[in-house]
Amino acid sequence: HRILASYLEARPNTQVSDRDGFASIKAELPSPTRRAALLMDPPYEIKTDYAKVLAALREALERAPDTVVMVWY
Question: Catalytic one among 18, 20, 41, 66?
Answer without folding.
Answer: 41
